């Protein structure tokens, strides 16, 4: 019951809807307390604490605006937040954001990054709700380098002389 209105749950047949997600906390570093800001566990705890006083939904993300405050956020709103986050990340990195970025874009990026960093196709498909690995191979594999390779290439490569 929220503001005098009964709320009801909607059951879905989406395979990953009831999946339990486990997040690992980033160990706190005394020498760099700002790393705590990157910890998803820490961020979710703060978010849940701050939304608790007006929360009217069991859904993780709730509205914070006046009229819908505390009610479940729509899929469209989450989609807008994802696109805004992608654009902000590109801007922060000094890179142009690809044209036509959509929230669904993050699914391919996340799956490709996981694959590039050694996560099995079985685990990726289970997390994404894909029944067969062919779905990833045909539609989502962006052929990314592992993060460690990009970091090593950037930090260990000799400086460019400007000559080709």
Can you put this structure into words, describing what you see?
The protein has 164 residues and is mostly helical. It has a domain at 104-144. It is built from 6 helices and no strands. Helix 3 runs antiparallel to helix 4 (121-128). The longest helix has 18 residues, at 75-92. The chain is globular, with a radius of gyration of 20 Å. Residues 3-13 and 149-164 have low confidence and may be disordered.
Which SSEs are present, and which pair or pack?
Elements: H1 40-51, H2 75-92, H3 105-116, H4 121-128, H5 133-140, H6 147-156
Give a quick set of tags describing it.
globular; 164 residues; mainly alpha; disordered C terminus; 0% strand
Instruction: Give the structural class.
Output: mainly alpha
Number of helices: 6
What is the strand content? under 5%
Q: Ranges with pLDDT <50 over ≥5 residues?
A: 3-13, 149-164
Helical content (DSSP H or I, runs of 4+): 40-55%
The best one-word shape is globular
Summed over residues and divided by their number, the pLDDT gives a mean of 77
InterPro entries: DNA_brk_join_enz, Integrase-like_cat_sf
Keywords: DNA recombination
Protein name: Tyr recombinase domain-containing protein
In short, what is this structure?
The chain has 164 residues and is mainly α.
């Amino acid at each position: 019951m929220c503001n005098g209105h009964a709320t009801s749950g909607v059951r879905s047949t989406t395979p990953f809807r009831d999946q339990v997600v486990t997040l690992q906390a980033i160990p706190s570093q005394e020498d760099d307390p700002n790393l705590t800001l990157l910890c998803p566990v820490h961020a979710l705890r703060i978010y849940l604490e701050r939304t608790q006083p007006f929360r009217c939904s069991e859904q993780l993300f709730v509205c914070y605006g006046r009229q819908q405050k505390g009610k479940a956020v729509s899929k469209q709103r989450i989609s807008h937040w994802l696109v805004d986050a992608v654009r902000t990340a590109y801007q922060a990195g000094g890179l142009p954001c690809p044209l036509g970025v959509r929230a669904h874009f993050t699914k391919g990026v996340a799956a490709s990054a996981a694959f590039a960093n050694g996560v099995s196709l079985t685990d990726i498909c289970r997390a994404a709700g894909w029944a067969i690995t062919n779905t990833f191979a045909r539609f989502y594999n962006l052929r990314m380098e592992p993060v460690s390779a990009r970091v090593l290439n950037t930090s260990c490569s000799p400086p460019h002389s400007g000559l080709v």
